[in-house]
Amino acid sequence: MKAILSPYFDAPGPAKFLRRGRFVEHPDVAQRGNQIRVGLEMAGCEIVFASSQPELRKLIIAVHDTAYVEYLESAWSNWSKMPDASTEIFPNISPNRHIAQFNENPVALAGWYIADCAAPIGEYTWRNALLSVSAVIQGASCLRAGEFAIYALCRPSGHHACQDRAMGMCFLNNAAIAAQELHQQFAKVAILDIDMHHGNGTQQIFYQHSDFLTISIHGNPANFYPFYTGFENECGSDEGEECNLNIPLPPGTNEASYIQALEKAIDVISSFKAEALVVATGFDTFKSDPLGCFSLESTSYNEIGRKIKSLSLPTLFVQEGGYFVEALSENVRQLVAGFESV
Asked: Histone deacetylase domain: which residues (predicted)?
């Protein structure tokens, strides 16, 4: 398998984020990117670095709102010109968009376009997000050219990014952008999200589309981030009715229960007759991940990889979560090894 890495896969991450009312050290540290790369190398992947892709902005706007993209492009520049500006942009007001008037003040824009305090914007956020998209676009191009499987190492992640809002450490929805690009060639594209957290942004982007199937296996949002989406009754609407499947699982979910949920997802993907697959790939389901609550072992990812391979679809793995624990590189290796063993 070829692994395509953003050139900034090991860039310093944000300093802080808000968790349970406290600002704490941000978990997306540079060592995390290095661990994932080690895991890919251990699995025998061919390592390639992404380069800037032509018409990249056009491809992003095919998924994201133009005004939102323009905000991300200029957010830091405008923010840093304010007196006493912080080194990272956090929203300090959350407007009711149904009644609020749009305001171009940098503080107002932060509240308008950043949904929570887990997605601070710094000086290099736009650069890093842009090259993450380059990695998935390059990966999608490889699949369109006939390659069977690609792993795209993106930092920052993307599956919480909505059409016009950043949240949960995500700014541009890498998986959604890749799926849209694959749809240029493949009539039906499935997105399988195996991150610990519900892929709310991906769901929102494709919720009314019948050519995309979105499935997310995640912690029950009744008491887990992102709290407001990811429930079983969210099935898609209009043309996308029955094209969205959420499988929320309880804290402590072990391998047997997780694989049962994955098998259900695989059956739905098969029935959908998908022609290509994007896997929003998170390892925060691991038993000791600092942001997870499941009980998967390293060897669990080998079985997950084997199950995904059983679909026999051109597959793009897109990096989402999985944070700085000693076993992260082994978890990555196990997933790739399982996929390639079938």
From this structure: 26-337
CATH of residue 15's domain is 3.40.800.20
Closest Cα partner for 279 from 140, 119, 125, 138? 140
Catalytic residue among 26, 64, 160, 197: 160
CB proximity list for 17: less than 8 A, separation 6 or greater: 23, 24, 26, 27, 117, 118, 119, 120, 169
| Cβ atoms of residues 170 and 20 within 8 Å | no
**Known catalytic residue at 198:** no
Residue 197 in tokens: 């957290």
C-alpha to C-alpha distance for 230 and 226, rounded to whole angstroms: 8
Residue 210 is assigned to a structural domain of this protein: yes
- The residue assigned the tokens 């019948």 is 210
Q: What share of the chain is helix, strand, coil (3-state, %, to 5)?
A: 35, 15, 45
Q: Residue 220 sits in which domain range?
A: 2-53+133-341
pLDDT at residue 197, rounded to an integer:
98
Average confidence (pLDDT) over 224-251: 98
What's the pLDDT score for residue 342? 67
- Whether 43 is in a domain gets the answer yes
Q: Could you read off the pLDDT of 8-52 as tens digits, one per residue?
A: 999 998 999 998 889 999 999 999 999 999 999 999 999 999 998
Reported pTM: 0.97
- Please count the structural domains in the chain: 1
Does a structural domain hold residue 280? yes
